[in-house]
Each structure stands twice: as structure tokens, then as C-alpha cells.
Amino acid sequence: MGLPNASEDLSSEMEVDAFRRLFPLRYFERHLAESIRPDARSLSRARNTTISMGAVASADGSALAKIGSTTMLAAIKMEVMTPSLESPDEGCVSIDFHMPPICSPLVRPGRPAEAAPVVAKQLSDTISSSGMINLKELSLVGGKAAWMVYLDIYCLDADGALFDAALLSAVAAFSNLQIPTVSLDDGKIVMLPEEQKEENSEKEPVNKEKRKLTLGGIPFSLTCILHKNYILADPTSEEESIMETLVTVVLDSSNQLVSLYKPGGAVLAYTSAVQDCIALTRQRVKELHQILEEAISGMEID
Amino acid sequence: MEVDRADGRNPNQLRPLACSCSILHRAHGSASWSQGDTKVLAAVYGPKAGTKKNENPEKASIEVIWKPRTGQIGKPEKEYEIILKRTLQSICILTINPNTTTSVIIQLLPCAINAACAALVDAGIPMKHLAVAICCCSAESGYCILDPTKLEEQKMKGFAYLVFPNSILSVLPEGSSLVQGEPMEHGIITSVTHGAMSVDDYFHCLERGRAASAKLSDFLRRSLQSKLPGDLSKAE
Predict the structure, then answer these.
(1) Tens place of pLDDT for every residue, chain A, 302 residues?
(2) What's the N-to-C CA distance of chain B in angstroms?
(3) Would you call A109 helix, strand, or coil by DSSP?
(4) Which H or E run includes A289?
(5) How far is CA A97 from CA A61, A215, A258, B189, in A?
(6) Which of B52, B111, B119, B201 registers the highest number of CB atoms within 10 A of its CB?
(7) Cα A120 from Cα B75, distance rounded (Å)
(8) What's the confidence (pLDDT) of residue A82?
(9) CA-to-CA distance for A287 and A45, rounded, in angstroms?
(10) Which domain of life is it from (chain B) (predicted)?
(11) What distance in Å separates the CA atoms of residue A132 and residue A87, rounded to the nearest whole number?
């Protein structure tokens, strides 16, 4: 911003909130010089993360993930379909990411948010690259019937690090997924409702044993902001709007790099910065893995 | 390690490059860039007055429209638009023409970024430095190859699109400045990866990409320099 001298004079008289609105970059840089951020986090610490499973009772699998204030609700519905001719023994996963106007004052009805299709494509690339879902497991009758998995993620509150929260909620929803039982009825696959047990002895479920997906390498991600020489982990939306250079690193549990996404931005990333981001992500992967394990075991006790 | 690629190139070789500028008469700047059989056409219109609603009026804004040759505009196109827009925003000097919009219209990613840069130069938009884009892929056994064709891309374990700044050809004797112990052209502007690869493979790809970007920068410099005397005589 144009007037450094004016801000120096005014800063002693102005209120903190006014300074924050008028000179946001200088406000943040004052904090960064002391290695701290306005919400009292250190530069490499992420916000409080929670996962709660089974948030949507009518869905086959669902999860609500919160990173700080950013909230994502993921829900999975499964449908039987005929597989395509090129891959007759594979199912299909379709991922959709919605940003309804409730999530942010910048998103208005009728004008879809710019970030939504980008995050949706990033998510589907990441989930297919990581090999978490084995499409062959989704096949029911080779060549005739396979599962189509619809994963919908709704952003309920957009406060920075959208991709991280969306990926976390998607992974949690897949861990929570219970594949519905189906049976073969005159050559057609029919969904069996949960309650009928004794009467329908002729309708034997085709997949009684196999109710959960085996997940391969589970991907976890961390978004960092690069600003001059600083690397800030897990930005809020205010930080993202001021300092625009974002780097998202996705690692899976065996520390393979699934994705390194840096879509332009004024700051160039040198090898040392990339290595620092990857190191921060490794730590975060351990934290997130633990949080996910706790959420899964919490569900099983119920 | 002996690698057999379908067209007989060795792992570090790029496909033949061709670049031609000012091919569209109505556009303020245009360029067509081809690497082997992949060809991309980029057109630049601008700076035009006014910015879009949410953009900062203190700075110039860049708008990217990606038109696929066939089919409708869907999510992959929107993602490419945003990546391209952020890459170009980082290299253009935005404070020179505030409150204007420059539109860049593209009809395929690495090729598109190179074509867009050439078109921006052709239109005369002020920039900090040019960007060169390269694609590297990493195969199962860990070796990496550059500039793959579509078929090679699909067989690979993972690939990365990388964009580096153009190397500085300095007139002064002290050469390019070092930032954090590395020359300026080693910084990454943009990186988009697909497929899982180990962290070491990624750094390997980065090194190969940097070496190749030096070659691409030279090519870009040569083909744009040859345009200059001609432009002075263009009365538009």
C-alpha cells in the first residue's frame, strides 16, 4: 500500500481494528516479525481440527470436518450402474464440491464461487492419484453391475484452507462408508433394506460379508502461504486474501508425494522453501492420522 | 539407463519447438506455440478499461478464457483458467495500468503457458520476466523424462507441470543475483502434479525441469528477438 509514513504516524493513535482494515499487510508483517500470527498461533501450527462421523443419517457414509472455522460436510450415496465397456470390472467415483452462499459473504446466489470447480477438480485428481480407492472393489457382477459412488462435499464455512478441510472430510466419509446390501432378483440387482432378516430367505444378499471399502494410502494435506521469507501453515481466509501465494502439499501415510500444487503467485518457491513445506506437511500428516483414528474408534464404540 | 521412447528421443530431449507471433490481426497480441504435435493458440486483448467486480482497482487484472477445441466448458477448463491466471499475475507488473482488464484467450497446460507469454510480449504488456513451462514425468523405476506425449503421459506413474521464470541474460559483468544461495531462475512459479511419486522423485524432476527451462528460455528469447525490427515498422 502507498503511504508507509502515514501508517507510522497513525499507528500510535489508531485503533487496532482500524489499522487491521486499512493497512492489512503491515499489520500482518508486524506480527510475522515476532514470529506469531494475529490469532496467537506460531507460524507452523495448524488450527484445531475435529472430525465427526456419521453426520448425515440418510447417507451411506458421511463426515463433518472442521479446521478452525472452516467447516466441510461430506456425504456419500451409492447407486448401482452398468460399468463402461473399457473397464467392465471397475466402479466409478464422482466427486462434487459445492460452495453455497452460507459459507462466505463473498459467495452470492446465482454466481458460483470461483474456487469451487478448482477445489472439486483438485480433489478428484488427488483421490485418484493417491490410489486410496481401488475401483475394482466397487464391482458387483463383472461386466453387468458395479457401484457408482457419489461424493458430495458442502462447504458450510469458508475460512481458508478449503482444500485441506475438504480432503479430510472426504477421507473420513470414505472411512465411515457402509456399502448397502444388495441381492440378485431375477437377474436384476435390488437393494435390500436393513431390517428384513428372517422372511427374505430367497433374497440372499450378494455382498453380505463385504461391507466396508479397504482404503489404500490415505492422503492428507497441508496448505501453506509463502510470503517473503516466511512460511505460514494453514492460513485463514484473511491471510489468504492478503498474501496470495499458496502451496498445497499432499502426502499419503507412506510419505509418498501425491500432489504439490502451487498455482502461480508472486513469490517464487525455491528448493529450501519446498523442502520446508514438505517437512511441515509430514508433521501434519501424523496429527491428522491420529485424529482420524480417534474418530473412527469413537464411532465403533457406539 | 537405456530408455526406449516411442519417437526415439532420449530422456532429456524436448520435442521440436516452434513459435510464431502476430498471427491474428484483430487481437492486440497473439502467438501460436507448438511442441511436437501439440499446438496452442493464445490471443491477448488489452489493457481494457475497468475491472471485474471483486478485483482490486489499484492493480491491473488478468482474465483468462480457455476454450477447448471440442466439447463444452467444464471443470478442467476452469481449473486451467485459474492456474494460468495466477501464473500470469505473478509475472506481469500489475501496478502499471491500474483498473484495467487484460483478457487472455487460449485454445491446450505447459504449451498454453508458453503461448500466453509469447502473446503477452506481442501485445506489449509490461512484465517482470517471462515464464517457461515444462512437463516432467516420473516412471515406476524412478527415472524421469521430459516433455512427454499424451501416450507417454498415461503410462507414467506421475507427472508434474512446472513453470520457471525466464533466465536473466545480464549485460552487467556480475551475472544474475543469488537468492538464498540459488540463482533467481530456479524458483518455481507454478507446480501442478498428478499421480503419486516419492519426494525424491519430485526433486529429481525439478532439477531436470530447470535444466530444460534454460533451453526453452533461449528458444523464446531468439524467436521473440527476431520479431522486434519488424514491429517497429508496423503502424497500428
Answers:
(1) 444 445 555 556 678 888 888 888 888 888 888 888 888 888 888 899 999 998 888 888 899 999 999 999 999 998 888 888 888 888 888 899 989 988 888 888 887 787 888 888 888 888 888 888 888 888 887 778 888 899 999 999 998 889 999 999 999 999 888 888 777 666 666 666 554 443 444 455 555 555 778 888 889 999 998 888 888 888 898 888 888 788 888 988 888 888 888 876 777 778 888 888 888 999 899 999 999 989 888 877 65
(2) 54
(3) coil
(4) helix A271-301
(5) 16, 21, 20, 27
(6) B119
(7) 8
(8) 85
(9) 11
(10) Eukaryota
(11) 18
Percentage of the residues of chain B whose pLDDT score is greater than 70: 63
C-beta of residue A229 within 8 angstroms of C-beta of residue B187: no
Residue A77 backbone dihedrals phi, psi, to 5 degrees? -120, 145
- Between CA B56 and CA A244 the distance in angstroms is 13
What CATH number labels A47-177+213-301? 3.30.230.70
Looking at residues B100-104, what average pLDDT do you find?
A: 66
What is the distance in angstroms between the Cα of A79 and the nearest Cα belonging to chain B? 23
Q: Sheet of B100-106: strands edge to edge?
A: B17-21, B29-35, B38-49, B100-106, B61-66
Q: How far apart are CA A200 and CA B119, in angstroms?
A: 69
Residue A242: closest C-alpha in chain B: B56
Interstrand relation of B144-146 and B158-165 (parallel, antiparallel or unpaired)? unpaired
CB contact (8 A) between residue A256 and residue B88: no
For chains A and B, CB pairs below 8 A equal 106
Question: Chain B contacts of A217, Cβ < 8 Å?
Answer: 196
**Residue at grid coordinates 475435529:** A50
Q: Which residue has the cell 492493480?
A: B59
Buried b (16+ CB within 10 A) or exposed e, A90-121: bbbbebebebeeebbeebeeeeebebbbbbbb
- Categorize the per-residue pLDDT at B81 as very low, low, confident or very high, splitting at 50, 70 and 90: confident
Please state whether beta strands B190-194 and A246-252 pair in parallel, antiparallel, or not at all (unpaired).
unpaired
pTM: 0.79
Best residue in A271, A282, A285 for a mutation probing chain B (most B CBs within 10 Å): A271
Q: Is the dihedral of CA A288, A292, A295, A298 positive or negative?
A: negative
C-alpha–C-alpha distance, residues B136 and B119, integer Å:
24
* A120 or B122, greater pLDDT: A120
Cell output for A175: 472411512
CB atoms within 10 A of CB A207: 14
The CA distance from A96 to B92, in Å, is 33
Question: Contact A121/B86, CB-based, under 8 Å?
Answer: no
Q: What share of chain A is helix, strand, coil (3-state, %, to 5)?
A: 35, 30, 40
d(CA B26, CA B22): 9
Q: What residues form DSSP beta bridges with A141?
A: A145
Cβ B196–A257 below 8 Å, yes or no?
yes
Q: Residues A94, A69, A288, CA angle at the centre, nearest 5°?
A: 65
Rounded Cα distance between A221 and A253, Å, is: 11
- In this structure, what C-alpha cell is assigned to residue A205? 444378499
Interface contact B193-A260, CB threshold 8 A: yes
ipTM of this predicted structure: 0.72
